[in-house]
């Protein structure tokens, strides 16, 4: 999509122009469009804009939550990522494999990492190769 292109190029100004067009068309509350905007803003390192889009979504699914968690994790805001992960779980949403990879990237404490590892096992994802790699990275970092 055009938002993916803006994200790949870190073209924040162009992404904001597209966002303005999305607002004009009334699509800002669409979960898929909103998640694409969150990803674009995150890759452009505009965390406040990403969070603003997230906050204004009418309906948030595990993909939009994971996108926002990933934005925080990839931009060095581990505490915010972990807080949002906990909030997502309190809302009754079950993390998917990508959520776990993102949250493992945000872990800076062994205790939190172990808790996430237990959640991965409880979710039945313990044999996933990508998650296994993320776990090794997390344990190596902590």
How is this structure best described in words?
This protein is an all-alpha fold and 142 residues long. Helix content is 75%, strand content 0%. The longest helix has 14 residues, at 12-25.
Describe what is shown at a glance.
With 142 residues, the protein is mainly alpha-helical.
Feature tags:
single chain, 142 residues, mainly alpha, 9 helices, elongated
Strand residues, percent: under 5%
Major sheet: size, sense and barrel closure? none
Please give the share of residues in helix: over 70%
* Cα radius of gyration in angstroms: 16 Å
Q: Distance N terminus to C terminus?
A: 37 Å
Mean pLDDT rating: 90
Number of helices, counting only DSSP H or I runs of 4 residues or more: 9
Characterize the overall form.
elongated
In terms of structural class, how would the helical and strand content be classed?
mainly alpha
Write the layout of secondary structure elements.
Elements (H helix, E strand, L loop, with lengths): L1 H8 L2 H14 L5 H13 L3 H10 L5 H13 L3 H13 L6 H10 L3 H13 L6 H13 L1
Helix pairs in contact: 1-2, 1-3, 2-3, 3-4, 3-5, 4-5, 5-6, 5-7, 6-7, 7-9, 8-9
């Amino acid at each position: 999509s055009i938002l993916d292109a803006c994200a790949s190029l870190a073209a924040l100004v162009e992404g904001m122009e597209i966002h303005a067009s999305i607002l004009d068309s009334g699509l800002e509350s669409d979960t898929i469009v909103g998640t694409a905007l969150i990803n674009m803003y995150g890759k452009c390192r505009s965390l406040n804009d990403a969070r603003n889009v997230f906050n204004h979504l009418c309906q948030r699914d595990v993909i939009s939550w994971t996108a926002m968690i990933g934005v925080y994790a990839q931009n060095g805001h581990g505490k915010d990522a972990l807080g949002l992960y906990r909030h997502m779980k309190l809302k009754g949403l079950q993390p998917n494999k990508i959520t776990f990879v993102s949250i493992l990237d945000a872990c800076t404490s062994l205790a939190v990492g172990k808790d996430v590892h237990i959640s991965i096992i409880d979710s039945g994802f313990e044999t996933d190769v990508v998650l296994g790699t993320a776990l090794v990275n997390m344990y190596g970092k902590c």
